[in-house]
Amino acid sequence: MDKLLEDWSQWNPMVLDFNNEHLNNYAEECGHNVVEKARVPLKPSDMLKKEADKADAKYPFLVLKKKVSFVTKCAVLNFFDQSHVRSIDMQANSDIFKVFFNDLGSLEAAHSQLEAFPQLMQLHRRQFGGEEKPKPKWVSDSADPVKLPALVPTARGDIDLSSRTIHVSTSGNRHPEFLVVPIVDATSYKGSSHLAIRDAEKRFLTVKFEYNLERYGAYVLEREYEDESSTKPVTMQLRCGRKLYIGSSDLDDVQRDVNVVDDESEELDMSGYKKCAVCNGYTSTVCKICDMPFCDAFCWSIVSMQHDKKCGTGQKVDINDASFEKLVPKCGLPPKRTLVKITAFEQSNVVYVRPADTLSDVAYNRVLVEVWKHGQTVSKLDQLPVCGQIVIYKFGENVVRAMVLNVDNPRDICVVSIDYGSVEYTDPSNLYQCSSYVSDLPRYATPVKLRGVPRRAVTPNLREVMYGMQGCSMTFELRYHTREYDNDNHMQRAVLIFLEYNRSINSLLKQVITPIEPDLSDPGLTEGILPHVAAPTGKNTDLIITDNSFLKYGIIYCTPAMLAVEITKMQRAFQDYGENIAKADAYAAPKGQLCIAKYKGKWSRGVSMELVGDGYPSILFLDYGNIVPIHVTDIRAYPPQFTYPVLTTEYVLMDLPENLSDVQVQRLERRLALGAIVTCDEIVKDENNNYSLLFKDIQQLVLRFPA
Asked: Which domain of life is it from (predicted)?
């Protein structure tokens, strides 16, 4: 045994490892290069993807290769059915992608789908649980599978009707168009008619009424308005493009009591108040020298010159029409860059404004007071009014001046409130006689055309924005140039600037109106986002038939006769979107999602009912009711800005036999012709919101020709 080492001072236990070449294996001389570099931390999106990959690792998946470029996640989900697919891993610039399935049954169903429709994608490989499965016998090992010619979006093949489970319309009829009858035509301006005198510029020749849905009750028109200064409940009413308030506040009541003088008010205790030298309204403001009473700056401006000469002399000021008219603000378009207030919206791009300066504001309210006072004592019209006649229009507690525009229907007179600009239809019992004095009072509400804002039917979103711009304290700066005058519509093109936010309301309205094409990878919209307006249940209701192609199954599509023109109005927006805004070459709308589709050269909105892989999804046109296979190149994604309500309803015809012969169907098609106005005997609605129609004569018509 070797002698034990007694001196341990020079012993190093690491020397053997240091001299061992197997253990001492440096890459470079510098030791810090051997230290493993710290890895860059993963981004949150990469971490989520990594966790998702781990979660999907135990599920079967297919590795597929695109054959055409427009295959998106939505298209893959629809191709394999969303109930089978768990997730999709698709890179932006790669033709290879993974589809994870819920189970082996879903995987085999996907194989069958690929075999039946190989035009869109092909199998690259399949795996389960991270282990590659052996290739099926039908996949060749010797070479890559033969590539089929790519599916060209413009290529239109045959329509596969045998694979469809939903019936399609076979009639091929065009969608009916419902023409909007002008309110005023050129014949109303002939000779020395009232309208030719009152409207020399023929402004009302292009007037429109855009609030049929409000008349029909499709919207909530009254809301509770919270006003801290009021002790009484105040209701805000939205009425034909104009916002007004029902239920006066205490301040309004005092002003009305002060300004309206009658026999009863003189009996009240008015000690401390005197009658204004100008308007005879009660006021406590007087001159400290001559004790002359006046209400405000407007009344003072009328008598100031006479007062300066007669103050202290004991002479009273002499107020006549000439002195009053000198200081009354002139009617017409306000000057450039002046502040204005909105009184009403006539159309999406036509708004009525009035000056908002102090003098004009007082003069405007004085006119309203004069009209209200006059309306308390006038009598009703003893005969039907004529176009252009000025009348007093009463509704509720409101009294306004109005000009008659149309009397074609003696029970439904069209008038325009000349102090606001709102166009309404009313019963002649609400119209009263108007004196020449009141009819000749100044009119301060002036229409302007909003520059750059297109004319569109009023959507619920646009309606909220329009009414939101009308407030007692909201003022806008009016900007325009005289060279932009619209000679066709006899209005000035202008821009309204909301100075508080330094923003043009023109751009805001255009943003609300103009649709934006959604990305094809975005989730689509469903019919549930759209409000539905159906005819009320009851008897003897007038309807217009929008589609009769399913009479064989006892189904018909109708819309209320009053709202049929609204369908044609909204088509203008769909047509502009399909022709000028949407840029996608093709779009296969997933089942149950909204889209814009072209039928017979016209773009309309619809919902995808079924896809069978032939490139022709079955589209139900919501505003009409027919179901037609439409090629993917004639379909566009649905923009979220289109919130027009659905006005067409599916009805089941009551008391019809289950099986109808061709002769019976032809008789029904003649009785219920496309686009015809029909009066049904009764509309019935069940607990599941399904509607039925009863026509008593149809049963006899069918029984004459038994099946």
From this structure: Eukaryota
Q: For residue range 623-639, what is the model confidence (pLDDT) as tens digits?
A: 999 999 999 999 999 99
Residue 692 φ then ψ, to 5°:
-135, 150
Please, what sign has the CA dihedral across residues 16, 21, 24, 28? positive
| Residue 203, CA distances (Å) to 4, 84, 185, 195, 439 in order | 123, 62, 11, 10, 18
Helical ranges in 514-636 per DSSP H: 564-576
| Closest-CA residue to 302 (of 287, 314, 318, 288) | 318
Cα of first residue to Cα of last residue in the chain, in angstroms, is 122
Q: Write out the two tokens for 310.
A: 């007669």
341 half-sphere exposure, CB direction, 13 A CA radius: 19
In sequence order, the β-bridge partners of residue 89 are 98
Helix, strand, coil shares of the chain, percent, nearest 5, are: 25, 25, 50
Quickly count: other Cβ atoms within 10 Å of residue 379's Cβ: 8
Q: Using alpha carbons only, give the angle 210, 173, 632 rounded to the nearest 5 degrees.
A: 85
Taking the C-alpha atoms of residue 226 and residue 235, their distance in angstroms, rounded to an integer, is 8
Classify the C-alpha dihedral 577-578-579-581 as positive or negative: positive
Nearest to 72 by CA among 668, 637, 640: 637
| Residue keyed to tokens 């309210």 | 365
Side-by-side strand order, sheet with 234-239 = 222-225, 234-239, 242-246
Q: Closest by alpha carbon to 520, among 611, 463, 582, 468? A: 582
User: Rounded to an integer, what distance in angstroms lies between the CA atom of residue 172 and that of residue 512?
Assistant: 35
Please give the structure tokens belonging to residue 574.
């769909």
Two tokens, residue 389: 């006649």
Q: What are the start-end ranges of the H helices in 518-646?
A: 564-576
Which tens digit of pLDDT belongs to each residue from 537-572?
Answer: 889 999 999 999 999 898 999 999 989 999 999 999
Enter the tokens of residue 379: 């009598």
Of 687, 675, 682, 674, nearest to 698 by C-alpha is 682
| Side-chain-side CA neighbours of residue 399 (13 Å) | 18
140-168 residue pLDDT tens: 444 444 444 444 555 678 888 888 889 99
Structural element, H or E, at residue 507: helix 505-513
Q: What is the pLDDT of residue 40?
A: 57
Q: In whole angstroms, give the CA distance from residue 451 to residue 449.
A: 6
